[in-house]
Amino acid sequence: MSLEWLVASATDAMLIVDQDGRIVLANPALEKLFGYGQDAMLGLALEALVPSRFHAAHVGQRDDFFDQPRSRAMGAGAELYGLHHDGYEFGVEVSLSPLRTSQGRQMVLATVRDVTERKLAEQALQESEARMRAIFETAVDAILTIDERGVLERLNPAAERMFGYTEAEVAGRNVSMLMPQPHRDQHDGYLAHYRETGEKRIIGKGREVEGLRQDGSVFPIELSVVEMQLGARRMFTGMVRDISERKAAEDRNRRLMQEISSANEELTNFAYVVSHDLKAPLRGIGSLADWLATDYAEQFNDEGKEHMRLLINRVHRMSSLIDGILQYSRVGRVREAQLPVDLNRLLADVVDLLAPPPDFRVTVAPALPTVLIEPTRIQQVFHNLISNAIKYMDKPEGEIEIACADDGSHWRFSVRDNGPGIETRHFERIFQLFQTLASRDRVESTGVGLALAKKIVEMYHGRIWLESQMGQGCTFWFTLPKSGAPLPRTGSIQ
């Protein structure tokens, strides 16, 4: 079996070159690799297969080989390139074997492999390693790696800052050094249990434990562990996040909720006191004043009768004020079921209950929507807005118009009147508790109604505002979500 036949039948690209650098044999695999036709490479100078910038170096390497012929890889440690017949370059790997003909001529057998794919894979691997190094070095969270015995191998800069050690200081030491008791013993036991049984208690899961800094301080951490298999080695990567600020915020929120709960309980007790301990004597005063005004009416002169009238009115005002305070305190604290409320029916009931004077015309737009809300709350909103319009009317013929518009995810309601109007500088003030614009002896008002309406609307994630021109009346607007609104859970229900 001749050498020529072996070369021709080889799947690797192979060629034989004489001492002058001429190709004396090239197999089909080589012709295909470099893009030449059959027998087109015979007699060709070997440098024709090498990019021109490497010609001088290549001639020197060929001469060195023939001076000391032996089997070896060509250009060890250097990147070699072949030149395709179409002019483009590609990476190659070349191994050389010396030959001698029967006439004593020296030749070399070269095997050429295309390493383009391998180089691309190596480049991709290098890029991936570079990205991983960048992530490892710049990650905000601490990253550390240990072997299956718990021995530390790597710490990223964030871990060094977090625990106060350099990577060199902890290398070769057990990771339990970064944990206080009892986590230290638990971790050692966990690793031993995992090695024996393969049962995973932490790997692939996040858990909250405690870390131990070099200065001895203990701090809360969130730990997640990933297992890796590197050949025959089993490694673990831990992602550690310092959650001290989060824990402190949770503690602050917990204390705040306790304070809110305590304040809510105090408000409940206050409401009870107001309802029972203040209204009882107030009812007595009212009954006594009514009795005096009735039984001793003939003994009072005009001034005395006026004083009795003022006394009775102020007792009733005080009673209404207490009722308003109780209503205001219950909003957002006392929860009722949210139900579909037909506003057409509800407005009819509200207007009927208020019984406007004969010279009032109340117009309610047809086909009002059905809203999901606590019936009592929406009734309070409309009751207060309409009653205010009636109460403060200064025209001989009062007009009130109630309407609704589709505002996307919300309904936008309006209550318009033709009363005296409100100055712009009072727009914010009137929604504050106990604020009224008219003298209480002229207009009976507690100053709670609009504050109550505002609190209810905002509790349902809506908003309330007004537009007005002096002498021409004003329009109160408010919005409510179409789908209802989730109400916050509170600590007290009456």
From TrEMBL:
Domain Histidine kinase, residue spans: 273-484
Cell compartment(s), UniProt: Cell inner membrane
Any GO BP: osmosensory signaling via phosphorelay pathway
Annotated GO MF terms: ATP binding; phosphorelay response regulator activity; phosphorelay sensor kinase activity; protein kinase activator activity
Residue stretches making up the PAC domain: 76-127, 205-255
General function of this protein: Putative oxygen sensor; modulates the activity of FixJ, a transcriptional activator of nitrogen fixation fixK gene. FixL probably acts as a kinase that phosphorylates FixJ.
Protein name, entry field: Sensor protein FixL
UniProt source species: Duganella vulcania
